[in-house]
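Researcher: Quick test of sequence recovery. Tokens follow.
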């Protein structure tokens, strides 16, 4: 079941919508970091220097993930909890599945 199949009416706008431009800015920075690492590999840079940069990318993506999760909890999940019933349980299950994916 996709997230679109789970109570599509429970979240009319996305929790990240107010910060959309900030998320796009951060993701473009990460994209630039990834391109930089590709250039490092092409240039046969030292392994540890490449690992340092990939670690920085991983940290940046984790920060984006946590911010998106926070926005989702504060907006979509909170709205579903206020509504109660099956929608609330579906949103809770959806968040738990997302947390499990993030924890891997």
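Model:
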């Amino acid at each position: 079941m996709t997230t679109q199949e789970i109570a599509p009416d429970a979240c009319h706008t996305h929790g990240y919508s107010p910060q959309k431009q900030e998320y796009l800015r951060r993701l473009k920075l990460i994209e630039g970091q990834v391109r930089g690492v590709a250039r490092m590999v092409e240039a046969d840079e030292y392994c540890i220097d490449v690992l340092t940069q990939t670690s920085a990318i991983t940290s940046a993506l984790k920060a984006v993930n946590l911010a998106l999760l926070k926005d989702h909890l504060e907006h979509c999940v909170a709205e579903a909890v206020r509504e109660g019933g099956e929608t609330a349980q579906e949103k809770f299950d959806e968040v738990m599945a997302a947390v499990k994916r993030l924890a891997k």
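The first helix runs from residue 20 to 42.
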